Amino acid sequence: MSTRASGDPAHDALRVATFWQPRAEGAARKILVGANLVFNEVGYHGASTRMIAQRAQMSPAAIYIHFSSKEELFFRIVMHGHSASREALVQALRFSTDPSERLRHFVATYAAWHAEWSLIARPVHNDMQVLTDEHFAEVVEVRRATMALLEEILAAGVESGQFSVADLPGTRRLLMSVCIDVSRWYVEGGPRSPSAIGLQYADLALKFVTT
What is the pLDDT of residue 149? Predict the structure, then answer.
């Protein structure tokens, strides 16, 4: 079953190539772009190395020069997706210290990232369970660092009296989940831009933790 919401194939390919341009080089980049597009269209289980090779305009044998398996390819996409979203958050939070302001920046950035880079995020969050135990543990380490950022913000808001949150882990889980879910329904070119979605979600998050 397709995991893709919509989009022009040529435009999708350009968006995915833009993401991978600073993260890989040469043939490895072409393979990652091809794999990312195929995983987005048919999911991990529906993808084959032959399909990925065709999309990358390479032979199936060429894939194994750079990657040991389809799972390793998927791991690279998952790892870079998690790392990129966390780096966006770190940059957004670097100048703010007020809990309310930091929560606004966190949610706005995280929701907007999952809209802007939905072609990356959608397969990442749909099929993570296929990773080997070792690869899954590496991804979880990055994910936990992201979760810790938000939980620290919520705890600081409770301590300062700005937030009323009885269940910190539950609230963190809810806020992150709704931001991640944007990647599953977002349609590029729709009535709301990624930044507009991010700002709306940030306003809702602040209302949620202060009521």
Answer: 97
